[in-house]
Request: fold
Amino acid sequence: MRLPLIEKYRAASFSEIKGQDLAIQDIRDFFESFPKKRAIILNGAVGTGKTSMVLALAKEYDLELFELNASDLRNKSSLEAVLKPSTQQSSLFQKGKLILMDEADGITGSDRGGVSELIRLIAETQFPIVITANDIWQKKFSPLRQKCKIINLKELDESVIREILYGVIDKEGKKLSQETFDLIVKKSQGDARAALNDLELALNLGEGEFINELSEREKRDDIFNVLKNVFQAPTDLGIVRAYDSVHMDLNEISLWIEENIPLEYKGEALVKAYDALSKADIFKGRIYRQQHWRFLVYQN
Reply:
């Protein structure tokens, strides 16, 4: 089975991680001084190398890695059942052990005990715990922040993204025009994962088809953002100006609205939404039938 580029070329050691030298030194210091601090938080945007850094730590120090994804451990009972044994039991392979709690953003707050239980387990753990998060500054994590050292990973510079992509292209024995290469770097916005996914798409589809795919993606992103704003704003015929930034013709915009209105509204609110749509000047010329709206209401 063919591995995606993000896995095939995942950094296997600290020397292969680009642009995060300060964070690497901090995570080394944490491990070597354990249990001075029992847990750290690697905080940073998607694609900055948080998980790769933990995998590199485990490999460099020959540690057994016990990996958990917080989205599967959303409350106190599940944390206690799965994470607690790992914090107390020795490695099966008679070597050091490292616990990774990945994507902590998925843990619940105090309402269901997820964060409070994690704090309790940190206090009792016999092994270092590394927690990764995209945004550890959420209010629910305030108590957790007080118990952990926070290491902030910065977004990668374009020069770092370029270095990563050039290395992969060279290893793959592929070629890419400078224009397409520059576009991938720019679109990544410091996210190495996104850059590698786009590079793989360009190599698989061909550059022409890849450019078309990017254009369609931008249109989808634009219309999603606009619809979100429109659905949440007060009803006003002037709201149609929100569509000025979307590079779609009116028929395409109206189809997007028709398909998404039933997902946003139910019952009588659904009828009112279609009524407002039919009265907007921007969509006159399209045919909307009240019977069709009521059918949608009954189906939803």
